[in-house]
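Collaborator request, handled under Task 6.
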Amino acid sequence: MKALSKRELARLERELVACLTDACETAKAEIVGFSWLTHRLDPEDFPASLRITWVFEREAEKAAALAGTGKARMLALTAQALDEAGVKLDHVAWHVRFDSEEACSRSHAGEWNRRLQQR
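Structure tokens returned to the collaborator:
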């Protein structure tokens, strides 16, 4: 796919933020320990570079959600948000990561930008 223009990237970012915010708010109400999510992408390699990270407070809460129905629910919310934003992906799960504040504090002293760049 060709690189996104600045205008296309700005529109996409607005759409993604709005749709992922809705998914985040839904998940906060439904999934114990879930806190927030974020996304990263490289405009030169979109959509392959898109990464969505769902963040929990503690590792135990993340593990419990992933062992139960939480993982399927987060993937469904992600797929719905991407669809609403007009982003088509063959395998949504390949673009989703799960993490925790606890793990970031332990490994990267709470520096999320550094942690997300390395993942």
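The cover message to the collaborator said: "The first strand starts at residue 34 and ends at 40. The mean pLDDT is 93. Please let us know whether this matches your experimental observations."
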